[in-house]
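REQUEST
  id: r-88c1
  op: predict_structure
  target: 2-dehydro-3-deoxyphosphooctonate aldolase
  payload:
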Amino acid sequence: MPFSVGDVVFGDGRLTVIAGPCVIESREHTLMLAHELQRRAQRAGLDFVFKSSFDKANRSSHESFRGLGMRVGLEILRAVREETGAPVTTDVHETTQVEEVAEVADILQIPAFLCRQTDLIVAAARTGRAVNVKKGQFLSPYDARNIVRKARAAGCERLLLTERGTTFGYHNLVVDMRSFPIMRSFGVPVVFDVTHSLQLPGGLGHATGGQAEFIEPLARAGVAAGVDAVFLEVHDDPAHAPSDGPNMLPLERFEPLLEMLRAIHELVRRNAPGW
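RESPONSE
  id: r-88c1
  status: 200
  body:
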């Protein structure tokens, strides 16, 4: 199950952090956050992968900011890799994007709403890059076994599954902690996307709301349940972020949270060997 992406290890009893702003806003802002997040993750003793999207194709409103586009976005992500040395990940939404994105991104991310798109999973798997598939809000964790089978059949040797909450009535998500051991039983490392799990989809009418005040307790619970990585959208000014501001973690809360998560992870490893 364990595998490496550059110097970053997923599985093997390690805890890895994937973090970054929801969407690429500018070169300067993205590089600033990449350096800050990497520095703070290193101080907390955790492996780090930078994540940001060049395009947010799934928006509540056509008026919402989607990003800077693929060409500019990939140029910025390439600069993050070159300046920080950290692996980067970003979303792919269509099969036509996969080859070009794979030239830059170390991990190709399949968004939750596209997790059943066979052609997209197969195209990503065939690049030889690591692939992270987010379990859809409409799937049970048991259904994620089919995602693993599709990716493996296409030759994917480095696969992650991500939990990002399940639809719970209108404008709400809930995380079933049973999903972590269930999906790990499929032989792949499991990521907990904490901040997206705290979205209130369409909760603002014209945009998605969120409950960032619950990031820390939910993250602590997920790490105690034995996840291999945590995914956190982080911003230096969430109130003015153009996308996902209500559920993003403020930058000043990032390092204290990582220190707590590392301590919980180490406690679980000592007392539950083999999880």
